[in-house]
Specification:
The protein is mainly alpha-helical and 265 residues long. It is 69% helix and 0% strand. The chain has 15 helices and no strands. Helix 12 packs parallel to helix 15.
Length: 265
């Protein structure tokens, strides 16, 4: 081998241990985050920027699979594995956040991937049967507020009134599954933990109220659950705040919806 060949020689590259085809999506996402024009890392991005990044990556993927029952079950399985891995690492390294941060990012990405389900309401029954709703609701109690806000955004999209009206029977299946998971009680817990001084959490709180409204609009009889699980009390307490803001306005509107639904039933 002459000098020229030595200078041109490059060793063959191999994948690092632990990286396989199933993780390609996450690695592509993080690479795009680093290369993004805003020069922000994935951790520094807002929820909106992260979601936009996920959507951009989805558009870049060629030959995407048609969404069917098998794809939904696979999606739920991936979400369950990411959640399980994160919980395991959190318990194992509770005093070392850097040891479970990577799994938290992967979980957040997987939650974002589930947004596509909101465009496939005919598959809601499959989502329920696969245990997806039970899993999604359980993550509303996650310690990381970014995960909670991601789940709130997902549920807000899944329960969008236009979508539920488009697929009435499937929408009923979704709403019933959420009620079975004590969704109203969990939403109140989320409201009590969010800090409105944080812009992202303030927006998230608005969406939590939106989920409650979507559910009552889909089934007015659910208004009694809002009263039973403390949503009315939370709203009345929030309305006592003197300053005026979008969330206070939404609280007054939701209060009217709840009272009207309760009276009509």
């Amino acid at each position: 081998m002459d000098v020229g060949e030595l200078l041109d020689f490059q060793p063959a590259r191999t994948l690092k241990r632990g990286v396989d085809a199933d993780d390609d999506y996450e690695h592509m996402l993080k690479r795009k985050a680093v290369e993004a024009p805003v020069r922000k890392t994935y951790e520094e991005m807002t929820d909106e920027e992260r979601l936009a990044l996920v959507m951009e990556l989805d558009e870049d993927k060629e030959g995407g699979e048609e969404m069917d029952e098998s794809a939904v079950k696979k999606m739920v399985g991936n979400l369950e594995r990411k959640h399980g891995k994160n919980q395991e690492l959190r318990i194992k390294h509770s005093d070392q956040p850097e040891r479970f941060m990577e799994s938290e990012i992967e979980l957040h990405v997987e939650i974002g991937n589930c947004m596509v389900l909101a465009t496939q309401p005919h598959l809601y029954p499959t989502l329920v049967q696969a245990g997806g709703i039970k899993l999604i609701v359980s993550m509303l109690t996650h310690t990381n507020s970014d995960i909670v806000l991601g789940v709130v955004d997902l549920l807000h999209e899944l329960t969008d009134p236009d979508i539920l009206n488009e697929a009435l029977d499937e929408g009923v299946v979704l709403v019933q599954a959420l009620v079975k998971c004590q969704i109203m009680s969990v939403l109140v817990q989320v409201l009590e933990t969010l800090d409105e001084k944080n812009e992202d959490e303030s927006k998230g709180l608005h969406n939590v109220l939106g989920i409650a409204e979507n559910l009552v609009e889909a089934d007015p009889e659910l208004a009694h659950l809002a009263f039973k699980h403390g949503l009315l009390v939370w709203i009345l307490t929030r309305l006592k705040v003197r300053s005026f803001d979008p969330n206070k306005l939404y609280c007054s509107e939701l209060l009217a919806v709840l009272l009207q639904s309760s009276t009509s039933n």
